[in-house]
Amino acid sequence: MKKIHVGFLLSYDYDKLKKSIPPVYKSADRIFIAMDKELRTWSGEYFTLDPSFFEWLKDFDSENKIEIYEDDFYVPELKAIENDNREREMLSKKMGIGNWLVQVDSDEYFFNFESFVKDLRKYDKYLDNPEKKNIQIAAFLINLYKYSDDGILYVKAPTRGVMATNYPNYKVARNTRKRIVYTQNLLLHESIARTEEELLLKFENWGHNIDIKDKDAFMEKWRTTNKSNYEQREDFFYIEPEKWKHLDYAQGKTLEEIAGNMDLKAIMPSKTFIAGKNFGQWFKFLFK
After folding, report:
1. The CATH homologous superfamily of the domain defined by 4-142+160-191
2. In the chain, where are the structural domains located?
């Protein structure tokens, strides 16, 4: 018990796991990959999986840390977001309550997972009787918006990403709506930085598939926004546009180059900001 267990969800964008698993591999005690046994999304659509992915996984898993967890993760009577919550809870229970239950989505890439693990270890006491003292540990996501020929547009202000919990009573995706501890850690979130075909596939099959109010208007803005005009535009989020107010641009052909060309010190929320958020969360849940 009290191990660092990391879970991933395998779905239509499974190939991205080749980029999201390596950054966490060294510091994870064990890694679990949840896969629907019929290869269905949360919306019930079937997807195909190239067997070469498992060949890559076998070659990569030099320390024999990775376990495939197959189960029935699609319930027709449930909405996509409810199937999302259900699979995440089943996966975390498989990972073992009493351990740190970290879930990283296939399109999320940790910069320094070792640092996040060090922050988790500060709260190991919460792994004792976790149901009675549910806590969540958050990092910050740099949301990528759209690739160009020589770089990427990304959301200027990072957003909170709840990445770990001690007790997986999920209410909305990874969020248990219990106390959150914020940490100074960053991830790249590929989010909607995909081809148009991939983006439309995501919108039809992810947990928020019914939350986009005007998909046509969103897609038109996404198609026509580029590095020449992004500074003249604002409000880019697909659900509540104002949540992604402004974009910025970074050059690079790979995620490593892109991250290297970002001003990460400027993007990272300050220690003062994080301390204020953590005090607010502590006080909010003090008597709950």
Report:
1. Spore Coat Polysaccharide Biosynthesis Protein SpsA; Chain A (3.90.550.10)
2. 4-142+160-191
| H helical segments located in the chain | 17-20, 22-25, 52-60, 80-95, 113-121, 196-205, 215-224, 255-261, 264-267, 271-284
177 φ/ψ sector (left φ>0, alpha ψ -120 to 50, else beta): left
Sequential pLDDT tens for the chain (288 residues) = 899 999 999 999 999 999 999 999 999 999 999 999 999 999 999 999 999 999 999 999 999 999 999 999 999 999 989 999 999 999 999 999 999 999 999 999 998 999 999 999 999 999 999 999 999 999 999 999 999 989 999 999 999 999 999 999 999 999 999 999 999 999 999 999 999 999 988 888 766 556 677 888 899 999 999 999 999 999 999 888 999 999 999 999 999 999 999 999 999 999 999 999 999 999 999 887
DSSP state of 138: E
Pairing of strands 30-36, 66-71: parallel
Separation in Å, CA 285 to CA 165, 199, 278, 279: 16, 38, 11, 10
143 DSSP β-pair partners: 189
Other Cβ atoms within 10 Å of 234 Cβ, number? 12
Is there a contact between 194 and 202 (Cβ–Cβ < 8 Å)?
Answer: yes
**Sign of the four-CA dihedral 106, 124, 281, 178:** positive
CA distance 78 to 80: 6
